[in-house]
Amino acid sequence: MERKPISLVITDLDNTIYDWMTAFVPAFYAMVRVAAPLIGVSEDELLDDLRSVHQKHGDSEHPFALLETRAVQERMFGSTRTDLLKHLDPAFHEFNRVRKKNLHLYDGVLKTLSVISQTGVPIIAYTDARVVNCLFRLKKLGIRQLFSQLFAPSHFANELRVDEFEEGFVQLLPPTDRKPNPQTLIDICARYSVRPSEALYIGDSIVRDVYMAKTAGLQSAWAKFGATYEASLWPLLVRVTHWTNADVEREEKLREQSRGTQADTVLNCFSELLEFYEFVPRFSALARPV
Which fold has domain 4-19+104-279? Predict the structure, then answer.
């Protein structure tokens, strides 16, 4: 089989590089089980409050969302943030414990990214997720150094350390940037002086990832393995999601628009990238953006 030459790799992160669903959802509910009795409310009431906080911020991973819940605000009125953090520390500790146990790279990711990086082909992360959370996971999993840059919306930029900007690693997009946005992929290719046809995009969603890549003219690889997780986790995520009715409607429209979209490559394992593609740097030196 002849391998397609690729000079730029752009990849999704959550459920493509690592199993976000299995890491986040069980950890979140473990936190709630510990926090509810500490606050003096039922788990259901706390889950309702947390969903409201998530929808307010447009993010199901809003850090320390517990502190902003109605239950905490009412029952612990007058407490300082330091006091709240101390009181709820067992809940946050439980979240971290379960997340640490479940957060892991998919099979073949580390070896494959290492091989690609050694060729000099840049590896770019493009995500809708909160920047600070993505940076934490990249560092925790020991793969931050394999990526050239991270592109993400800027709505929570104030959470980042100054050095992340000074190094040029984090590239902030407009707050309204949401997948599927083909123009973002086209712009990234232009920064690296690579034609879209010579770039590869990898993601777990046909609607938001593969459809976007095909529309932008990039090669597309569907991380099919990322769409496979414990079925019971999905309704648990929906229970506390930040999605609004408008978000659901948008998703339905996108599904209709992307109907019939097929990836150039279907990956049952991340390492299969090395079977389908040959990674050739655009320039002799390690590629850098223009």
Answer: Rossmann fold (3.40.50)
